[in-house]
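Escalation from tier 1.

The customer reports that the assembly of four entities below gives different structure tokens on two consecutive runs. Tier 1 could not reproduce it. I'm attaching the input and our single run for tier 2 to review.
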Amino acid sequence: MTKIKSLNDLRAIKASVEAKMNLRERSDAPEKLVQVKVAMATCGIASGAKAIMDFMVNELDKRQIPAVVSQTGCMGYCFAEPTIEVTVPGKEPIVFGYVNEKKADQIIEKYIKNGELVEGIIPVNYESIESK
Amino acid sequence: MATFKMHLLVCGGTGCRASESENLFHNLRTGIIQKGLENDVQVLTTGCFGFCEKGPIVKVLPDNTFYTMVKPEDAGEIIEEHIIKGRKVQRLLYVNPLTSEKVEDSKHMGFYRKQLRIALRNCGFIDPENIDEYIARDGYAALGTCLTEMTPEQVIELMKKSGLRGRGGGGFPTGLKWEITRASKADQKYVVCNADEGDPGAFMDRSILEGDPHSVIEAMAICGYCIEATKGLVYIRAEYPLAIERLKIAIKQAREYGLLGKDILGTGFDFDIELRYGAGAFVCGEETALIHSMEGFRGEPTVKPPFPSVSGYNGKPTNVNNVETFANVPVIINRGAEWFASIGTEKSKGTKVFALAGKINNVGLIEVPMGITLREVIYEIGGGIKEGKKFKAVQTGGPSGGCLTEKHLDTPIDYDNLIAAGSMMGSGGMIVMDEDDCMVSIAKFYLDFTVEESCGKCAPCRIGNKRLNEILEKICKGEGSMEDIALLRNLSNVVKDTSLCGLGQTSPNPVLSTLDNFYDEYLAHVNERKCPSGQCKALLQYWIEPENCVGCTACARNCPVNAIAGERKGVHIIDQATCIKCGACMEKCKFNAVFIK
Amino acid sequence: MEMINLTIDNKKIQVEKGTSLLDAAKTVGINIPTLCYLHLHDLDITNKPAGCRICVVEVKGRRNLAPACVTECTEGMEVNTHNIRVLNARKTVMELILSDHPTDCLVCAKSGNCELQSLAHELGIRKLHYQGEQSHYREDTSPAIIRDVDKCIMCRRCEMMCNDVQTVGVLSAVNRGFMSVVAPAFEMNLDHSVCTYCGQCVAVCPTGALTEVDHTNSVIRALADPSKTVIVQTAPAVRAALGEEFGMEPGTLVTGKLVAALRRLGFDYVFDTDFAADLTIMEEGTELLDRLNRHLSGDKDVKLPILTSCCPGWVNFFEHQFPEMRDIPSTARSPQQMFGSIAKTYFADKLGIKRENMVVVSIMPCLAKKYECARDEFKVDGNPDVDFAVSTRELANLIKQSNIDFNSLDDDDFDRPLGESTGAGVIFGVTGGVIEAATRTAYEVFTGKKLEKVEFQQLRGMEWVRSATVDFDGLPIKIGIAHGLGNARKLLEDVRDGKADFHAIEIMACPGGCIGGGGQPLHHGDSSILKARTAAIYREDESKVIRKSHENPFIIQLYEEFLGKPCSHKSHQLLHTHYFDKSKAVEIE
Amino acid sequence: MASINIKLNDQKIAQLQAICKEFNNDKGELINVLHKAQHLFGYLPAEVQEVIAKELNTSVAHVYGVVSFYSFFTMTPKGEYPISICMGTACYVRGAEKVLDEFKRILKVKVGETTGDGKFSLSCLRCVGACGLAPVVMVGEKVYGRVAPDGVKDILDEYLKQ
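Tier 1 run:
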């Protein structure tokens, strides 16, 4: 990693990373990637989030679905751990709770491949600072 | 395989289920099948939308229509009009109470959401182990702004204007604390992040450190700039291995980028952070105890003044803030003091993160603007009480706090209101109790904790809490008297009045607030020798109702102490002297013949 | 000086900035009760953990009550020290402390002299409203100190003394909450620790948690045994403090009454440790001059400075903590042991009795003496040179038990030959005294000249570490003095690191020297008592006709009749010792 | 009271000294040193504390005072499978005490004790922050959520088979 030596350096990094992140999130971009975020805080991991993360990485690869799987912190839905957020290009992100391997498999087969929802959706119930 | 064109999401939260969402779901699904649309439209139940007062909720995708207060008999109309004809059912649309306008697309009705995530802005959004993702979300921009465009005085002024108060429980104005530490002259000063989250049932700080460690690092650097400190220390619980790991990674990445270390962003400002580990002592959440612990001593608090801002770690001026407080700082710099001050109440600005737990459906981490009511938190965000039971109390502030009841449900939550109601904000644990919880036992639970965690330095906390606990135990056993209740109250007041640190000064709060709010329960234990919620074992008696008993012998066979006598096909009787109140008989009886008296 | 105006109990007062509420209140005749607080003003020793919460007062505008001992006065403060809220809180806290304290006051060693007991009385505690489980710990009896920590109230005075003042580091608060207590590592017994038995913990303990091992019954039994000749020696510091136990003003000299009382108790011979102190000067002084002369003649191997060795707490300290430097102190035994050794040889021979039939009792201001006399190297065939070391406090008790009206006793004189002493022997009892006594003799022996003035003011005083240069007829002799083991440590570290170039150093383990010993009447935090005792010792010195050890006729006689000359073979056998490396002596049970 | 008399071999002492050195033999770093030492030995027997005191130039009493203050430090070796029951409020109101009672009943030990065969030790801990899964039990590093008293036997069986 190179050192960030000035505020401009910092802004440049922000711009480039932001562009990359947008690329993988924005629907109209040519590279259509499915994005999966796995909540990997203590309670998530305690309920098996690691296994779900591995499952998603392996299975999406095996089933040749172009996707980015990343870890993230607590989404706040501790009651429904493990939780994952799936963003299919062109659609709103959807959070699924109580994900086990069977549910993860359904999410890939039904939702990611076919747009069919599966049980266990957790509606996002907060505002982000961007909207405030 | 079907490719659905539309989805109907029916809220399956407890609140909505109570208002017949299950029937609604059933009607929608059968309606769709009747119309032969089962391959085009998918009907699903979802988790709680956090809008229980307007339930049941139906959300239609992909057009984001949001129907509120939908009755089972509305199913037909939704299918007929919206799905087949493409016309939204106007009378079911959500009406914006401010504008009285009907909202067609829920994307434009974000304001129904009770939560606002500032401190948690990146939690569950970015990869905490990737600094780039933090930077992409405006990370380190605030530090950049402070270092290049603002003087320390200006930053402090901005913090003061924002109205941010310490989120660790005390509620001391953060900007003022920074100003005092800045004013203390010394060759070395320290920024300390208090991550010794010790309240049982609170996990806000852990979640922030696990989900967004850079926000804390950035804020500590900003604080260092303001108070002229070049060294930061994070005092973190050893019981949080994941948070420690993530924080270590984040510090390493920040160093590699030059955002920690020498000459940050070419401005000549030096700042670096080290970790110090707690070792399982709740009292170390108190800042003087925390500092002694960091110095390698027993975590015993000392009298303030001198405050750490004047004489802290190694005798040097030290600014101690907790994790959540720090997490708010970069946003305040980026968005301005006015923006932050526009959220919340007059004296409590911004949001507060709560760990919602206990007998509530949606256990989890929530962040709400100050001023929200308990009712909103419990019934709309929390999805109501588990198993539809009756709400009894909510405990805030952990062992330092008190119990709030039905009558406080509509009190706006802020620092001052909670204190006025006999509790406190604390670090943000919010434990919900239902009708099955005995409040005397709850008070005792907290006292058990305090007795365990008292450092032992001052007499009232060391011995007083022990005695309080013993009196409570006596009452729970049905051996208490009215004099004990009077003693309990006097001792609680004295322990509060005379203890050395915040731990002892607040430890009797669970006793006092239950005495105030649930005096009847105490009286029942003392006068009638009864525990109204059936939790106090010593006060329970298991009896067999002769009319229901068929003499199957299941209870007698399963009784571990052979306390139940009776012939096969004859009525059984429990010998109260032998019974150990394990409840096995009640569990095994298939005829509801065993009851508690 | 910035002045602060405030009101205490409606009295307007003005105090210097930085004054505590406790001290401010005192200026207008308001005595706020304290318990854990301890302030030895002249020694700058303070203990104020603000843990007992007895001194709480109400400060207008504050949510909680404030501990007066650590709360600084601020401008415009309005304080109430005895309204109902304060009184109720204070009494309730006291009841709490008592609820975790054994109530065996009637048979407690501290009864009548217990700060907790007096406070309970002052506060008018008549009933314990709060009762429950009491904390229990193992009792620990060492050769000198008994720890009955069930009686510990966590005032932390002993911990402060052991760590901050003495830097011995044996005691620490251990455990947490209700089970917290002050104890040695692993809650083991003191005799498994590096304890020096200086007894300063005992000297400040407000309750019966720390007391001395009591030998009074053994003494009574010995006195009652017709087959034993029981002789007693009394240390110099005892005569300057014993009177306090009988209601006399601190600083009252009771030498004559002391002798009379001992005689009434039935001792066959009443002797004086001061005699042995003179003997010590002869031996130690000779050793000093020997090393000095060798040094002056260019001997590179000679160890300088020479360190005094008459304080057993100090000996224990360096054996544990500085074993590599154990060849620096003088090999001379302490006066107590020299006395015992001479008594059971020279004097026993004179009487024509066997040593087994002689019992030597010493009256000491010290608890480490109890350990010292039990050391194996001070026994002959298992028979100790000194049988029992009894503290000043124990002696007072012995006198009371024996129905002696101490105050009405007529003065009496010590027996001869081991009762005759000089002023030099007397000043052993205060810090700087041993080295002043040694200087008086060494000067005259070294220079061959007579001292014009025997008082060396530059060696006196209460400062923790002092240094002075004495002119030995053109040769400047550099002398260092430290009292309190923490200061001894500093001085010793300087010597070790080559930062100090003293010829001789005197060290006393206890603050003030023996007059502040762990076996003295309790000062209860009043350091003016220590000053008064010091003054008394110097008065006794002044009143003596002979003030230099080498002029003591009975010392001269002893050498002539028995020992030959100082540092002779015989005196090495009887009056010198060797030291041990005890750094690894800590054992785990 | 030291419970078990172990004799440290030179290699272990060297390791301990290395830990102390890593922290510049600074007694202010005592707690960090103790954490590392406990990680190395599994517990902090008296001898370990003595070596640390010597290396950091402080008294053994001070080290023990610190060790006995913090509940994270232990002077007794834990069982092969240390069981910790979360006693945070969330777990408590969801029945952690009953779960604890069941462990006590089956293992026949009290909190803080180790079973005779050295297999299990039982302790309570404060909130692990997995309140969503209350009541929570940890066996070693593994977290078991939503544990009911009748599930206790199954958890133990898992380890007894091994």
